[in-house]
Amino acid sequence: MEIPADISESRSAGKRALLLPLAFTLGLAGVAFIPSVRQNQNVVLALLGAAAALCVWNAVLLVWVRRRGRTLTLELAVKKQHYLQACAQGSVLLYWGWYWPPVYAFVPLVVAQLVFAYAFDLLLVWSRRDTYRLGFAPFPVIFSINLFLWFKPDWFYLQFMMVVLGLTAKELIRWNKDGQRVHIFNPSSFPLAVFSLVLLATGASGITWGQEIATTQFYPPHMYLVLFLLALPGQFFFGVTSMTMSAVVATYLFGRLYFAATGVYFFYDSYIPISVFLGMHLLFNDPATSPRTELGRIIHGVLYGLSAVALYELLGRAGLPTFYDKLLQVPLLNLSAKGIDRVARSPMLRAFDPAALGRTLAPRRRHLAYMSIWAVIFTFMSVTQGVGDSHPGQWLPFWRQACQDGRRYACPYLADLSANFCQRGSGWACNEAGLLHIALSRSGEDLRRLDPMGAAVPLRRGCELGFTAACRNLNELTTGVGAFAAAPPTLEDYPIILRGSKGDIREREPSALYALACHEGWPGACYSAPAPSPERK
Predict the structure, then answer these.
(1) Three-state secondary-structure class, residue 197
(2) What does the pLDDT look like over 288-316, one tens digit per residue?
(3) What pLDDT does residue 536 have?
(4) What's the CA angle centered on 438, arms 533 and 447, to 5 degrees?
(5) Residue 366 contacts residue 341 (beta carbons within 8 Å)
(6) Running DSSP on this structure, what letter comes out for residue 493?
(7) Is 217 exposed, middle or buried (0-12, 13-18, 19+ CB in 10 A)?
(8) Count of CB atoms situated within 10 Å of the CB of 536
(9) Is 201 exposed, middle or buried (0-12, 13-18, 19+ CB in 10 A)?
(10) Whole-angstrom Cα distance, residue 214 to residue 424?
(11) Which of 35, 69, 189, 465 could form a disulfide with 427 if both were Cys (CB 3.0 to 4.6 A apart)?
C-alpha cells in the first residue's frame, strides 16, 4: 500500500526533529567518560541511567509521532530575560569557583544537568504539543539550582530529579495571569524548596553541599559588590529593582534594630548573609512569577526578606540547618503573586503605589530611577559596614567581648566558633572551647553543653596539638585538682583564628599576622613582637 506523500514527509520530519533530544542525550552519556567524572561509580551510573531513560522516551515518542502523523517543529525563541540571567549566574559561578575550587571541579556535572534539561524539556513539550520553542531557557534554571544546592556524588541522581521537577512544574502547573496562561512557580526555586522540605523532614541535609555552598560564597573578595553589579542589567531591562531593593532594605533594617536591642547580630557574621543576598538578586525576583504592580513587587520583596529572617530563626531554634532560609518561601510567594497584586490595586493602597509618581516616564527611565535609588542605598550600606567584607561579626574578638558583656546567644556562638577553629588545628581555640563548655554547663545557657565532662574532647585535642594550658585544664577536669586557666594565642594559632568568614588566611609572616590581629581587635596584638610563645611544647 502506497503512503501519501504528505504523511510520509510528516513522519520524516518528526523523525528528524527527534534527533535533537537524542544528540543532547548522547552528550549526557559522554560526560560519564570524562576522567574526573569516571572516578565516582555512582555518578557514572546516574549519568548513564538518565541517558538510558531519555533514550527510551525518545524511542517511544518516535513511534507515537509516526503513528499519529504528527510534525514536530522547532521555533527559535531567544529571550533577553533568559540569557541575561544566565550570564549573571554564570559569572557568579566563575568568580566563586576562582576562590573555592570545588565549583570548577563540579562544572562537568553542571554541563550534564544542562544537556539533560534540554533533552528532557524537548521530549516533555513534544509529548504534549508539536512546537518547541528553542532558546536559553534551561540555562538560568540549571545555573540557579547549582548556585544553592548540590547533592554529594553518591546521591547525584537527585540533582536530575530536581531538574525534572522544575521543568515539569513549569510545563504543567499554570494559571491565568493578566489574561495570559503562564507557569505559577519559578522552575528553579520550586524544586529547591520541595527538596529542601524533604531533606529537612528526613534529616538528610548531610547528603548535600548546602552548608558549604552558603559558607564559601563569601570567600571571594567584594562579593556583595559583585552581585550588585551583575544584577544591574536585569534590573534595567525587566524592572525588578524594587523587589531586590525592598528585600535587602527590610532585612537590613531588621538587623539594625536587632543589634540595637541585643548588642549582637541576628545572622551572627553579617546583616544579610551572602547566600541570602544572592537569593535577593538572582532567585526570587523572576518577573514571570512575581507581582506585576510596582507596589506589589515592593511588598513581594519585603515578604521575602522578612521570611528569610523568620525561617532562619525557626530553623535555628529547631536545631536544623539554617541555609534553607532563602529557599523554602519562594513557591509560597509565587502562589501569592496575584493576591499581592489585588491588594496593591485596592483603593486603600492605590494611593501609595510608587508607580503613580513615574507614570509620565518611559519604562526604562522608571527602571533607571529605581536603580539610582538602589545604588545610593547600597553605597550607604557598604560605607556603614551593612554589607561588605569587613563586618565585625565575622571575627572572634567581637564575640569574646559580647560573651563577656553577657549578650544573649554570644557565649554559645563563641563556643561554636572556638570548636570550629579547634578542629582546624588551633590549640588555643581548643582550650577556649573547653573553658567555654565548662562555663556554659554551669550557666545552662546552651542545652548542647550541659555535661561539663564534654569539655574533655576539645581540651584533649588542644593538648595533642601542643597547647600546654589545654593539658593543664584537661588534668583539672579529670582529677578536680587545680584551677582552670586561659592563655593567649600563639603565632601558630593566628593563621587559623584570624580567618573570620572569608576563608583561609594566606599570610604567614609574623608582622603581617600581628597587623591583621591588630586590625581585628585582638587585645595586645598591636604592640606584640613576633616572638614564639612559651605555651607551645
Answers:
(1) helix
(2) 999 999 999 999 999 999 999 999 999 99
(3) 43
(4) 135
(5) no
(6) T
(7) buried
(8) 15
(9) exposed
(10) 19
(11) 465
- CA-based nearest residue to 84, from 224, 268, 239: 239
What's the DSSP call for residue 148?
A: H
pLDDT digits (tens, 9 = 90+) for 111-130: 999 999 999 999 999 999 99
Using alpha carbons, select from 59, 57, 184 the residue that is nearest to residue 120.
57
- pLDDT tier, 356 (very low <50, low <70, confident <90, very high otherwise): low
Q: Within its chain, how far is the Cα of 423 from the centroid?
A: 24
The band of 275, judged by pLDDT with boundaries at 50, 70 and 90, is very high
The closest alpha carbon to 400, from 317, 521, 502, belongs to 521
Return mean pLDDT, the chain: 91
Confidence of residue 507 (pLDDT cuts 50, 70, 90): confident
According to the model, what pLDDT value does residue 499 have?
A: 87
Is the distance from CB of 469 to CB of 476 less than 8 angstroms?
Answer: no
Q: Which amino acid is at 537?
A: K
* Residue 121 half-sphere exposure toward CB, CA atoms < 13 A: 25
Q: Which residues contact 201 (CB under 8 A, 6 or more apart)?
A: none
- Asked whether the predicted pLDDT for residue 465 surpasses 70, the reply is yes
Q: Would you give the distance in Å from CA 56 to the centre of its chain?
A: 35
Q: At 21, which helix (H) or strand (E)?
A: helix 19-31
d(CA 142, CA 92): 13
All cell numbers assigned to 159: 540533582
Helix, strand, coil shares of the chain, percent, nearest 5, are: 70, 5, 25
Side chain identity at residue 355, one-letter code: A
42: its cell numbers: 555512582
Does the pTM surpass 0.85? The reply is yes
Categorize the per-residue pLDDT at 180 as very low, low, confident or very high, splitting at 50, 70 and 90. Answer: confident
Do the beta carbons of residue 207 and residue 152 sit within 8 Å? yes
Residues 482-505, buried b or exposed e (16+ Cβ, 10 A)? eebeebebbbbbbbbbbbbbbeeb
Alpha-carbon distance values, 10 to 19, 56, 61, 328, 400 (Å): 15, 22, 14, 46, 75
Grid coordinates representing 207 are 547528603
Q: Which residue has the higher pLDDT, 359 or 255?
A: 255
Rounded to 10 degrees, the C-alpha dihedral 448/520/223/310 comes to 30
> For residues 157-195, b (16+ Cβ closer than 10 Å) or e, as one string?
ebbbebbbbbbbbbbeeeeebeeeeebbbbbbbbbbbbb
Per-residue pLDDT at 6 exceeds 60 = no
pLDDT tens for residues 193-205?
A: 999 999 999 999 9
Helix axes 138-148, 157-172, angle to 10 degrees: 130
Determine the Cα–Cα distance for residues 363 and 34; give it in Å rounded to an integer.
47
d(CA 137, CA 118): 9
User: Grid coordinates in use for 386?
Assistant: 551593612
